[in-house]
Amino acid sequence: MNKKIMLYDTTLRDGTQGDQITLSAEDKLRITHKLDELGFHYVEGGWPGSNPKDARFFEMARGMSFKNTQLTAFGSTRRTDTTPGDDPSIQALLETETDAVTIFGKSWDLHASEILGVTLAENLSMIEDTLSYLKKQGKEVIYDAEHFFDGYKHNPDYALSTVKAAIDGGADIIVLCDTNGGTLPHEVQGILEQVMPYITRPVGIHAHNDCGLALANSLQAVQLGISMVQGTINGYGERCGNVDLISVIGALQLKMDYQCIAPENATHLTELSRFVSEVANIPPLNQRPFVGKSAFAHKAGVHVSAIIKNPTAYEHLNPERVGNRRRVVVSDLSGKSNIEYKSEEMGIDLSANGNNSRKIVDKIKAMEDQGYQFDSAEGSLELLIKKETGQFEEPFTLESFRVTIEKNRSRPSSSQATIKISVAGVDEITAAEGDGPVNALDNALRKALNKFFPHIKEMGLVDFKVRVIDGSDATAAKVRVKIESRDSREIWSTIGVSEDIIEASWQALVDSFQYKLLKAINGE
Q1: Is 454 helix (H, G, I), strand (E, B) or coil?
Q2: Record: fold of 6-261
Q3: What pLDDT is attached to residue 497?
Q4: What's the pTM?
């Protein structure tokens, strides 16, 4: 490996400024430990002077030891009408007892004069005074030069003077921020080439993604000599977010020969991305580079045929290097190669000299023409392949069901379902209530099957989605229902399509139960 790059994670502070992202103090502590395990150098815990939750986080973290991570408290320069020693927010930083603190100050003259309402000279004093005071308290001080790139473009001399004030105050690291996310890569290059000779401290970059260029700008900065990249996991952050440190590590360490974390830890990047997504209660982005579910997914038959021969034909790196996996999805764009690859992956013997492959491809294309979408419903796909090849016999059949919905003026609607199924020639009739018609059907079917298949108790419904396939028919339009279910071992998706939403839901529901029973019967 060549030069080592320090990773500074601000998911717990800058990341939570993103829309719909909230983390409790306990959530923050869980994420901190995960980042520490992977070897992140700095984790910014929050701004203790701004809210009680961040103060509580630092109180919980006080006294804890971290193997690799330097926990960092974040704050602003002193107020205009006081000294650092008398500024409550500065004192809140000291009360965290972290060895490192990060202070942000204004590098753009517009922000000093129009937003803060101070003279340019006073802004410089605020920067130097604050950093000098914190250094005297024995802290490692990281200085975030907020709006540096915009400031430099408007008034280069003043932007540089703010950095000089930070250096004079004792800053250990200077971080140049593209706070508005509007700087282009060639501008980053031009500005860094001009200013780097004047900065006598290690330099970092903090890039926002408003132009979709945060990663490009960060990589450009590394090539020009910066030694720290600030960002967040999954790119969470205000407006369009921050640079995604997952992609930073993937690009720098696996493609550019820099070292960000221990080489063996790169295989945990997918796990890290999904862990933070789960804690933040934000659905994972399938198309996220390196670690998304679709990052190494192949759909077109030509592509699948090629990767079977050599995966590098359509993959920029081995997905296992980041803890991800190759996926072949099946759709109306599929060919025999897709079916054969998926069948092998599922442990299904197609045989029949390729006849089964062709038959299944034709079946899938015809069904997708009707609105099915098997690339997002692999549970239904596996059932279809096994049924078409005679390797699965349906464990139960529907004789009939009836769903009633009752609504009156004073209370919400309620649903009841009555269902009759046949299992090995034995009829079972049950009824159940639910919060809606699908929930009532789910409860009734589960109740009927429990007598014959106790494994059903292990599974539960995770998600239920309805999509209108073509809205031109208004309320008579065909709909696609996708159900996601899980047990203690896996999560699977199933699908149904019909002009009747209850019928489409029933199809997806039956597939979900049949998939569970298929695995139970096979001992999986």
Answers
A1: helix
A2: TIM Barrel (3.20.20)
A3: 93
A4: 0.72
